[in-house]
Each structure stands twice: as C-alpha cells, then as structure tokens.
Amino acid sequence: MTLGEKNDSARRSSLRWTVALCCWVTFIWGHSLIQGPQSSLESGMVVSLMRPVFEALGVTDVDLMSLIVRKGAHFSEYAVLGVLARCLYGALRSERASFMTNYPVTFVIMVVMVPVVDECLQLFVPGRSGQPTDVLIDLAGLATGALLAWLVGRLRARRGR
C-alpha cells in the first residue's frame, strides 16, 4: 500500500468514525427531547422486562428498579459514546494532520460537553430536568467506554506484533 493509499484509508476511517459519533450524539440528544411521560413509559417497559432479573437479585422496589434502569441507560449510552470518541481520536491520529490530535484537550472538551448540553436540553423539555448527577454518571460512562476501547486497541496491537 502506498503512502497516498494509506492517507486515503485513514481519511475514510476518520470520516466513518465521525459520522458514527455524530449519529450517536444525535440519538442521545434526541432522546433527551422526549417529554417526561413518554420517557417514563420507556423506562417502565424496560423495568417490566427486567423485573425477573431484579427480583432474582433481591431488588423488589419498583422505584429502585426504575432508578437503576434510568441511570444505567445514562451510563451505557455514554459508554458507547466513549468508545466512538476513542476510535475517532485514534483514526484522526493515524491521519497525522488533524487539528483535534494536535490539540487533544480541545477534543476532550468537545466530547465532555455532550453530556453537559444533554442535561441543559432537558431543562426545556416538559416533565424533564437537567441533573448534575446525571452529568457525572454520563462522564463515568464516557470514560469507561474510552478506556475499554483503548484497552482493546492495546491488546490488538500486542497480538499483531
């Protein structure tokens, strides 16, 4: 593979990860625009599906089940975002010409702003509220996803040697 082909491949990879990340952010923010009653119905459906698992674990309080489902949704959707962000950053680094990789703090700040904007959006949606604790849960999910993606990348690199 020539240098030009490698650069084209790196650009295509960066574009794919950028599109995936933007689609996921759109999904997250779109979900935040769902009004409170509809959001509660969604959580209730998940709780009813998961109820046997919760009860097997000794959790019988429906409000606690709902809390776990809601906070788990925050964590998991941001874990996916963390994976996508880490993969995008890796693809941009392989391009070696990206503003974001020359200034990684800027990249991190942009990604960290996603949950902040997410919670701010909820302030304007009937029946929803923005919670600072949700931002912390989101950031924990984001960091976990990015760390997992980094670890998988390291393992792949070691196996390739």
Task: Write the topology of this structure.
Layout: H1 3-32, H2 36-56, H3 62-95, H4 99-102, H5 104-122, H6 132-160
What does this molecule look like?
The chain contains six helices and no strands. It has one domain. The two termini are 19 Å apart. The protein is an all-alpha fold and 161 residues long. The mean pLDDT is 90.
Identify the notable features of this structure and list them briefly.
161 residues; mainly alpha
Please give the radius of gyration in angstroms.
19 Å
Oligomer: single chain
Specify the helix fraction band.
over 70%
Strand residues, percent: under 5%
Structural class: mainly alpha
Straight-line N-to-C gap: 19 Å
Please provide the count of β strands.
0
Quick description:
By secondary structure, the chain is an all-alpha fold.
